[in-house]
Amino acid sequence: MANRTMEEIEQDLEHLKSNIDVFFLFTMGTIVFFMQCGFAFLEAGAVRSKNTTNILIKNILDVFIGGIAYWVVGYALAFGRGNPFCGTSMWAGVGVEDERLAFWFFQFVFAATAATIVSGSMAERCAFHAYLIYSVVLTAVVYPIVSHWAWSEDGWLAGTPYQDFAGSGVVHLTGGVAALVGSVILGPRYGRFGPTGKVLRGHSVPLAALGGFILLFGFLAFNGGSQASISHEGDAGAVAKAVVNTVISGCFGGVTALLVYRSRLCGRPSNWSFLMALNGALTAMVAICAGCNVLPTWGSCITGVVAGLVFLSLHVLLPRLSVDDPLDAVAVHMGGGLWGLVAVGLLQEGGGVRGGSLVTLGWNLVGALAIVVWAGGVCVVMFGALRYLGWLRVSVEMEMQGMDILKHGEPAYPAEAWLERQYSSTASSKGHHDDSNDLPPNMTASWRPQAPHHPHHNGLSLPPGPDAHQLPADHHELAEVTGHATQAGRRSQGHINEGFEVERL
What we know:
Layout: H1 2-46, H2 52-79, H3 101-121, H4 128-151, H5 168-186, H6 205-224, H7 235-262, H8 274-288, H9 297-320, H10 329-347, H11 359-388, H12 396-401, H13 403-408, H14 427-430
Helix pairs in contact: 1-2, 1-3, 1-6, 2-3, 2-4, 3-4, 3-5, 4-5, 4-11, 5-10, 5-11, 6-7, 6-8, 7-8, 7-9, 8-9, 8-10, 9-10, 10-11
């Protein structure tokens, strides 16, 4: 009787351990799933207001379409029993055990992350049906096969010293390479480069900031959850080390990018840039993915510092090569992912920097090359075919007017929302209501910001703008956040968002 009782206790403990592991994976996976919200806000803030709805629907479809594609095809290619190149079983979830579904969910949110990287680099000019096609291909084929190589028992990289704990190469380098190929074949946005080209700023730094903070939070689960269990000996230590190294690397990456950008080494005016600090931190968290479970804390410091420099280097280099990437997705994910694979081979205990073996570094470079060739090759064929067929890019007219209204019929900031009596300059003075005066000056093409001391400014209403004939005939100017009078010849001053643009279409 006593023996049977002990057996029952042991069985109960095994069930408890299994349940805890499932709960751990679902909890971590749910937080990683929330990163899609972070990507959505970050990308929405980084594009112009006329394309906000367009980028939001692409982010949510990364989940919907990605979920279907990964269930039908992707998981089978990634973790089905098969050969060293890909899996060949478990199509549409057939044969996946119930407790294994937690692992399926965790891997699915990783796949959705890889696909979302591409939508940012191709924002504001990619045709919607082209997006649908490449989203399916990336989620169903490109990413799953890479994850099979490194993380499946049958994969050809899994049996080597290749080290990529949370996906610097598998997730981020794959997505970054696809983003680079897509943005190059798609071409830059109208007005971005050329004799009259300029920086096309996003419309909302606060939205981008909210998305960035969500991503910084999500990376803690992205890396910590990659342990995939919490009930075995050493699991708690590995998770703790992964999370702390992720925080340290992100901190050093953000501060490095902020200070170097401020130092004018990037060939720009000296500014304390929030977006540079944010992207530097994100690049560092991408880079630490590969070795967050094995690097010492000093190694995560170095990883973060170099990642910040890698980001700034690509941020400056890519525009000079006429590569238009509104989100800096290539710099963050491809640059950070590649450096992460190098960093773990150099900085881990027994790595190259400590006089140890360079075997891991060598295999990580082999893996990186294979990822670049596979993801880049498939994307060259896919995006090249879409461009040849004329399906890849929207028309110039749609690009100039924005896709929110023309493509979706749902503007993110509809003019009707501003048609309120409180904005009318005639309602109180003439005793009647005129909708034509309800639209505030900053919603019209003739508006220019005025100084706070303008004689027409009473603190309750916006000052009137100059006549339309005073505007330049070519592209509009960018208002800058300075807090003091701008240079001679510039008509804008005051405290307004640096990313706000007044467009004439």
